[in-house]
Amino acid sequence: MEFPFDINHIFSDRISILDHTLVASRQSAVRTDLQDQIAAVVDELGRASAKAQQLPAPITSASKLQSQKHQLYLMKDGESNRGRGLVVGFLKVGYKKLFLLDRNGVHVEAEPLCVLDFYVAETLQRHGYGLELFNYMLQHQNVEPELLAYDRPSNKLLAFLAKHYGLVRSVPQVRFQICLCVRRMENRFPSGSRCCIVQDM
């Protein structure tokens, strides 16, 4: 995804982590013009993600990121676009309090880290970028994929989780249509909290 400004000037790292401050570097912390460009990138990514998921409105925007305690992992390809760089995609995560049913119908209260939005530009898919971005987030958060919650996952995301992490099974929930996934080859749900939560609110 190309922009009419130098992506490398805004995002110095291959993967940048944004939060409510919309700061990607020391330079962008003091320059409002760079923060405006960061906001434009986040807004455009949110619109592209919503369109790809056929959502009525974006669930990711600069204003929403500024008002919520979420983190957005943004990946760039710094060598493309004649050295000006382009944005590959993003992954947004945050904590949510959930009330779940386990396989035995017992209510469990949890506050897992949730995958809230995940998008790689259509022209850049199937090149390993999504897996690289997702693994970076897992390492940064020090969490396993089956310990995350997935908010309104698309079929592409479910296929991605099955292919790369073996998360395939689900148990429907009474409220919010939440499901629990377990790794492939397991015949039953693991004990404790080792599960993948899929949430469709």
From TrEMBL:
It is found in: Cytoplasm; Membrane, Clathrin-coated pit; Cell junction, Focal adhesion; Cell projection, Axon. It holds the Pfam family Acetyltransf_16. Acetyl-CoA binds at residues 118-131, 154-163. Its EC number is 2.3.1.108. Gene3D superfamilies: 3.40.630.30, 6.20.370.120. The record marks Q53 as: Crucial for catalytic activity. Residues 1-184 form the N-acetyltransferase domain. GO terms for molecular function: tubulin N-acetyltransferase activity. It comes from the Eukaryota. Keywords: Acyltransferase, Cell junction, Cell projection, Coated pit, Cytoplasm, Cytoskeleton, Membrane, Transferase. It is an enzyme of class 2 (transferase). It catalyses: L-lysyl-[alpha-tubulin] + acetyl-CoA = N(6)-acetyl-L-lysyl-[alpha-tubulin] + CoA + H(+). The keyword Oxidoreductase does not apply. One of its GO terms (biological process) is neuron development. PROSITE patterns: GNAT_ATAT (PS51730). The keyword Amino-acid biosynthesis does not apply. GO terms for cellular component: axon; clathrin-coated pit; cytoplasm; focal adhesion; microtubule; spindle. Specifically acetylates 'Lys-40' in alpha-tubulin on the lumenal side of microtubules. Promotes microtubule destabilization and accelerates microtubule dynamics; this activity may be independent of acetylation activity. Acetylates alpha-tubulin with a slow enzymatic rate, due to a catalytic site that is not optimized for acetyl transfer. Enters the microtubule through each end and diffuses quickly throughout the lumen of microtubules. This is Alpha-tubulin N-acetyltransferase 1. The gene is ATAT1.
